[in-house]
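User: Show me a protein chain along with its predicted structure.
Assistant: Here is one chain, sequence first, then structure tokens.
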Amino acid sequence: MSTQHKNIVEADLHEPKGASTAAAGEVFIADGLGSGSFIKEETSGSWFYSNIGTGTTYTTPTSYTLINMAGTAKAADEWVYNSLGRLTYSGAANRHAHITISISFKHSTGTGTDCYFAIFLNGVEETGSNIVQDGTTGYSNITLHWDMNVVSTDYVEIFLKTSSGNIIIHQMYAAVGATV
């Protein structure tokens, strides 16, 4: 005779397998095959670049060009920053990620020239992730938000382009958070 799980008294219930070795903040994720594992519920990574005075100039980037300034990693929970504009997901679980990018920039010729920015995943533009702003010789600021799914070793990069003139990046902050 077997006892239905719903009839077991509270004192006799047990934690899921693996709970005794799970790290603080990890959650159990079922694998759909009658088992599962404990993983971090959320991960995050970010990097920051700032050079308000001089900036980094991208000379006539008429096709999408990687924004690859040396920046500083600010957080690295399952995300690795290569110091040249690439955040790589290093976790084991497949995740849903949300990225936010804020960029302060100038254009060398000013009004009338569109400046495009886009998010790339594994070297391919995420369709619909691009944003455009009319160039100005004064500071402009744009913010991009994007959702995507990532698996281990996927990487995120930001690209820019314009039809003429130069784009000068003065400050950029990129942050990505991912959940299961």
